[in-house]
Fold this protein.
Amino acid sequence: MVKRTRRQRQAKALRRTRRIHRWSGITLFVFFFVIGVTSVLLGWKKDSDYLMPPTSRGSSTELAEWLPTDRLLTLAQTALRDSLGADYSTTIDRIDYRPGKGSIKFLFEGHLQEVQLDGATGEVLSIGARRSDLIESIHDGSVLGDTVKLLYSTVMGLATLVFTVSGFWLWYGPKRMRK
């Protein structure tokens, strides 16, 4: 049996690492591209009115002066139906309270529309599309369902770790071999 030198073992490890790095990159290129693009868009969501409507200011930041939530929900559902038509679901997905701004956002299931109301008066402050929610669901894989999201997140997280470690070794390994 031929005994390998330390340098030969290091060179073999570098070749193996390079192969893993290359094939992982080729295999997952599209997914990393999508994650990169959606990351940039999500980073800009609060600075772009196209991606997410700006949070409007209501008349009062005192919660004690606000209308009851069920009344605000009814007003939001009516505003959505009157503005966009009966084709849009009025089933509530989530409510985003913004006491510091005096407003409350209602988000509905099955579409990207939100309704913002003045918490104290119930006046409609804005109705707009939250495109950032779609971008987020593409980014995290939830657009394909919860099971796929879990698998996708796991694979992409592990791939990021593999790229980090193998990339470091591809940078550091040759330096170590020269010593």
